[in-house]
Amino acid sequence: MPTVVLMGTTWVSATDRSGTAPSLRAVLFDMDGTLVETEQYWGQAMFELARVLGGRMSEAARTATVGSSLRRSMTILHADLGLVRTEEQLQSDARWVEDRTAELLSDGISWCPGARELVRTVRAQGLRTALVTTTPRRLAEIVLRTIRADLHGDPFDVTVCGDEVPARKPDPAPYRQAMAALGVAPEECVVVEDSVAGITAGLASGAAVLGVPAVQEVAPAPGLTVRDGLLGVGPAELAAVLAESHLDDVPA
Ligand SMILES: [Mg+2]
């Protein structure tokens, strides 16, 4: 393997000698708000549910739900509206939002700027790929069908959905499950995420994280690189994110 030079930093790939940082083998992508602009649909469905329940969801509550499970989102919404709901009502509200979001997703989905090119070039480089989403399989499949049709094939080796994991982001379990399925170690992976919950999950899994927050504020953390978006990001930039995270490990 040749020496790789990126962003003014020179390092040697893991196969060259022991003790050096591992090279990039896999990229694990969040879905909503990272690859596709679907967060607005979840938001719209929740604002509509709030009206059905006779209230109005605040922007702050909506922001807090980004990247969360439906259960947690419903708890935030109910607290915001000052409602006390039974477990049965909570589940029925969650189903309402899921069904309404499914309707909205079926009308069409847009890539986030730069995401399509990133997925294509990561694939073309022969890197392993996973989609790791908190969204349930039923809804994720609507998005995946669109992505597969657009790219004329499935760009993901592994897909892990919110109803297929023992714990959801910010727990690292979904990312660890995807890494195990891909047969890669965390230190060979970059996670691409937009939400605080997702970034937290990626870092806790041991991967380097490229954060592209659009709605939530993200605090600096070791292993985390933050950018405005994915425009201009390709495999070389992701390799640099991984290399920088390993530099964080080395004592000065
Ligand atoms: Mg997201």
- The end-to-end span amounts to 27 Å
Low-confidence residue ranges:
1-18
> What would you say the CATH architecture of the largest domain is?
3-Layer(aba) Sandwich
Looking at CATH, the homologous superfamily of the largest domain is HAD superfamily/HAD-like
Integer tally of domains: 2
Q: Describe the global form.
A: globular
**The CATH topology of the largest domain is what?**
Rossmann fold
CATH class of the largest domain, please? Answer: Alpha Beta
Query: How many distinct helices?
Result: 9
Question: What does the model show?
Answer:
This protein has helices at residues 39-52, 59-65, 70-81, 87-106, 115-124, 137-151, 173-182, 196-204, 235-249; strands at 4-6, 9-11, 26-29, 128-132, 158-160, 189-193, 208-211, 224-226. With 252 residues, the protein is an alpha/beta fold. The protein folds into two domains: 4-37 and 110-249, HAD superfamily/HAD-like (Rossmann fold); 39-106, Orthogonal Bundle (DNA polymerase, domain 1). A six-stranded parallel sheet has the order 5-4-3-6-7-8, with helices on both faces. The two termini are 27 Å apart. Mean pLDDT is 91; it is low at 1-18. It binds magnesium ion. Magnesium ion binds next to loops.
